[in-house]
TrEMBL record:
Gene Ontology MF term list: dipeptide transmembrane transporter activity
Domain ABC transmembrane type-1: 98-303
Name of the protein: Peptide/nickel transport system permease protein
Protein family: Belongs to the binding-protein-dependent transport system permease family.
Species in which this protein is naturally found: Devosia enhydra
UniProt keyword annotations, A-Z: Cell membrane, Membrane, Transmembrane, Transmembrane helix, Transport
Transmembrane segments: 6-31, 98-121, 133-158, 178-197, 239-264, 284-310
GO cellular component, one term: plasma membrane
Location (main, coarse): membrane
Subcellular location: Cell membrane
Amino acid sequence: MPLRFFLARLIDLVVVLFGISIVVFLMIRLIPGDAVAIMLGANTEITPESIAELRGRLGLDRPMIEQYFVWISGVLQGDFGTSIWTGRPVSEEIAANIWPTIELTLLSVLFGAAFSIPLGAFMAQARGRGSEVAVRVGAIAGLTIPSFWLGIVSIFMVSKLFPGWQALGYVPFTQDPLGNLSRMILPVIALSLPMLANLSRLVRSAMLDALGQDYVRTAKAKGAPRRVVVYKHALRNALIPFVTSVGVSAGYLLGGAIVIEQVFAIPGLGRLVLGAISERNYPLVQATILVMTAGFVIVNFLVDLLYAVIDPRISRR
């Protein structure tokens, strides 16, 4: 990969992250009403003195530009502020809840990506057959079924069929590997099903296009085995749009994990940010949203680099 291409993508990443920080910073400050009064209204009597005290504690009595630079300089040093209700650093609150979300998202991406490739290749090879139509209908259904509904239904089904199966809650992998994986099976399936359905249809379309190219016909004319033609020649070129879609899907899965964590009682960033919103915990909401959106952008940055590795022509443009 040329250094010039890497530096160009890195500059794009920095610019996008800078823009995201501005949007996140302004998001709560520009909403109608007084955010400080709203936060105080949750648990205490609102008085001008209490509003002024909290406004000064949060630095909201300063000019907005100064507020931003104070906040972003702290973020760059790993200081996201202090949680209003617990008094703990926000970075500690996030660190204590981020690993379940990362695990859920990574397992969902791996599950969806791993099964979509053979499923899409099968649909491309069996085009027009009854089995291919059945799988394609199932893929379309997977795109239309909401993840939270599938999660709720799967919990009820498991409780009926396997009463001893613990489907809710979370156990760290280092503490109980089998218990961790058994609890993650259902949320991973529920979260990754739309991704699996979408990617398998994408692989099918890309494979059909690749199988009609001249180099594939040449390989067939040379007597190459069908398996080699399909999986070595056609599939490799079909993976280029696939990799890009995986990166975008990973970002959406990170957002979808918020709902799934609520359904399966997983103590991740989703439950943390929803609890912070309900408590009007202003610094925690701001920091959690920044971390999740930055994660989305960084994943797509890595996908851009991988895209150039798969197809070196991209880095020369």
